[in-house]
């Protein structure tokens, strides 16, 4: 009987400690308004520079236009410097000021398409046809920064 009581008391203490240890959003940590869309890519061996060349003329060029129009806040490309990087060796990152920039918006779409132009749209289609032979997208994430107080 004492053993059961001791186990019950220890279990109660453990559960109470767990409940007390929980952090509260906005009190113990902040959550950014900004969002980052991160695409994980595994570029095939010896295709890194070819893939980057295509990105320069498609993904980077489109993001430059979107940034100039205020539709995104920033964009970056990161490449792993380790030869055994596993399933990911390239990261495409787009930063949005807030979730409003992700909402469908007919006016923003038309502004982008006007700035981007038909020639760029056709060139992008042509270049991206080769992407499946160069890389594999292994994941995509939409994340917010957490700042512990």
Describe the structure.
- By secondary structure, the chain is an alpha+beta fold.
- It has a single domain, classed as Alpha-Beta Plaits.
- Helices cover 42% and strands 25% of the residues.
- The protein contains three helices and six strands.
- It has helices at residues 2-20, 48-68, 106-128; strands spanning 29-31, 35-43, 74-79, 90-96, 135-143, 146-148.
- The strands form two sheets. Strands 3-4-2-5 form a four-stranded antiparallel beta sheet, covered by helices on one side.
- α2 (48-68) runs antiparallel to α3 (106-128).
- It starts with a helix and ends with a strand.
- The mean pLDDT is 91.
What's the architecture in CATH terms? 2-Layer Sandwich
Order of helices and strands: HEEHEEHEE
What is the name of the CATH topology? Alpha-Beta Plaits
Structural class from helices and strands?
alpha+beta
Beta-strand percent range: 15-25%
CATH class: Alpha Beta
Return the average pLDDT rounded to an integer: 91
For the biggest β-sheet, the strand order reads 3-4-2-5
* Proportion in helices: 40-55%
Number of separate structural domains: 1
Q: Radius of gyration, Cα only, in angstroms?
A: 23 Å
The N- to C-terminal Cα distance equals: 45 Å
pLDDT below 50 for ≥5 consecutive residues: which ranges?
A: none
Number of strands: 6
Given the C-alpha coordinates, what overall shape results? Answer: flat
Number of helices: 3
Largest sheet properties: 4 strands, antiparallel
